[in-house]
Amino acid sequence: KYRRCCATYESASLRMFRLGRTDTIRSASNASASFVKSFDDPSKQNLEKLDLMEKAVKAHRSYTNMAISGQAIDRHLLGLKLQAAEEKLSVPAIFRDPAYAKALHYHLSTSQVPSKTDCVMCFGPVVPDGYGFCYNPMEDHINFAVSSFNSCKETDAGDLASAVEEALLDLRRLLEQTPRSKL
């Protein structure tokens, strides 16, 4: 429906730090955008799509590792903003920049809620024109819960759920049709 990348929040646990809560895994990256665009490009061969998928997974894993080790940007920036407010300083220019506001307008808020129990958990979107997307990977399937506000004409949780199902089926076909050597 949207056919574009958006600011995406994926929760990263900071439990390894005393009083640590969460930070943001910014899932959208140049690597993930290149991979997704390759599906609509008839000139891309399956092996090239797999290579792009591998790069996207590595980029995501790298940023996830940065986030859980306290090296993401969101909580650091929030800390600077709160410190400026606490010390009654003027808010630094970065926090007034429209790009900063756009980067924090999470059209997609996601989180894995792993459980050994076959259950579905859900949470709402964090912005009025966004989606909440909760997932629970099980051994032989994944439970998904997608939500959006009915008051927003631009979002439809059912449409997003259908698009995700279609994308997962596309990925399965790609992986089944493109065996890679194990060397």
From TrEMBL:
Coiled coil: none annotated. Transmembrane segments: none annotated. Residues 2-165 form the Choline/carnitine acyltransferase domain. It comes from the Eukaryota. Pfam families: Carn_acyltransf. SUPFAM superfamilies: CoA-dependent acyltransferases. Belongs to the carnitine/choline acetyltransferase family. This is Choline/carnitine acyltransferase domain-containing protein.
